[in-house]
Amino acid sequence: MSDAVLEPGRGGSAPLATSTGSELSEVRDWITLLKPRVVSLVVLTGIIGLIVAPGSLHPVLAAAAMVCIGLGAGAAGAINMWYDRDIDALMRRTAKRPIPAGRIAPNGALGYGVVLAMASVAIMGLATNWVAAGVLALSIAFYVVVYTIWLKRRTPQNIVIGGAAGAFPPVIGWAAVTGDVTLVPVILFAITFFWTPPHFWALSLWAHGDYARARVPMLPVTHGARETRRQVLLYTLVLVPVTLLPCAIGFSSWIYGAAAALLGAEYLRLNWLVWKDAQDEAGRSLTNDRPARRAFKFSLVYLAVLFLALAVDRLVLA
Ligand code: HEM
Ligand SMILES: CC(C)=CCC/C(C)=C/CC/C(C)=C/COP(=O)(O)OP(=O)(O)O
């Protein structure tokens, strides 16, 4: 591209190339506001809720339902970035985001988030049913109001309670097909709910400096690294038995059961290493939080493969 810009006799291409480049990075910023990588896993759990639900949905309507979960989660992320723009500017991990970096105006981001959130709920209701749309609206409200506005800056339990927002997508997927919420989607909710604290607190172990600077009361800031490691392990000890409930109620077979047991054993091993990490008297890691970094990365693979195994199990049995 730069060669074309510098080529003699083609002076017109320079502004064109530059404006195309800046338009592209503007589009990228609007996409960044939707937290696309987080949303990809949210959508995966939603799709699997939809696949394992009894009954069927026309493929076009199923696709619309998934787009709505993605858009709704993304919209909630944009509103979260609007509200958190002051603390995002103080944290190294988030300072380059479009709003704190000054590339997107706060009100623009808020309007974008609100319009997308309302559109996602309305389209979900029209394409599937109003139970699914209602749960989608509830999850958006949970992320924005309960987690972001109410709890994030007040209590280290913010992600335990507010984290419920991220546990709704499989319930939404299920409800999109069946129009109701029964025991199985409640179990899928519980799996993501108990997965969220070890997922996030592993990251918070090495990002605690950011949170301390922004005065966000995350667990390592309020209770120290040692207690955070203990909580990571305790929640994993609850999580693993919860992941076996689909087998216990006869919904899933040995295929999912074996996957859940193997994944659970590995996640427990990694979080045991988090707990046992070499640390000073204050509980600070002497290994640059290597075990926590590994456990965080694995948490993403863990949830994705666990849900995929649930779907494979149902499809093989069908
Ligand atoms: C309150 C609950 C949660 C909190 C506080 C939380 C927090 C975080 C944070 C701070 C990051 C790092 C993001 C970054 O550096 O930009 C992250 C990454 C991630 N989270 Fe969570 N998370 C939560 C729940 C979830 C849920 C429910 C899912 C999906 C089901 C999820 C999926 C992901 C994924 C896929 C990444 C990696 C993103 C990347 O590669 O940049 N998280 N999470
Ligand atoms: C369907 C629907 C609405 C689902 C919502 C799912 C969802 C994305 C839940 C919360 C997950 C999340 C990225 C929290 C980040 O915390 P943070 O905002 O404190 O992280 P940050 O510091 O990176 O902004």
UniProtKB/TrEMBL annotation:
Keywords: Cell membrane, Heme biosynthesis, Membrane, Transferase, Transmembrane, Transmembrane helix. It is found in: Cell membrane. Pathway: Porphyrin-containing compound metabolism; heme O biosynthesis; heme O from protoheme: step 1/1. It catalyses: heme b + (2E,6E)-farnesyl diphosphate + H2O = Fe(II)-heme o + diphosphate. It is a multi-pass membrane protein. The chain crosses the membrane at residues 38-57, 63-83, 104-124, 130-151, 158-177, 183-206, 232-251, 257-275, 295-312. It is an enzyme of class 2 (transferase). Its EC number is 2.5.1.141. It comes from the Bacteria. InterPro entries: Protohaem_IX_farnesylTrfase (IPR006369), UbiA_prenyltransferase (IPR000537), UbiA_prenylTrfase_CS (IPR030470), UbiA_sf (IPR044878). Carbon 2 of the heme B porphyrin ring is defined according to the Fischer nomenclature. Converts heme B (protoheme IX) to heme O by substitution of the vinyl group on carbon 2 of heme B porphyrin ring with a hydroxyethyl farnesyl side group. Belongs to the UbiA prenyltransferase family. Protoheme IX farnesyltransferase subfamily. HAMAP family: CyoE_CtaB. This is Protoheme IX farnesyltransferase. The lineage of its organism: Bacteria, Pseudomonadati, Pseudomonadota, Alphaproteobacteria, Acetobacterales.
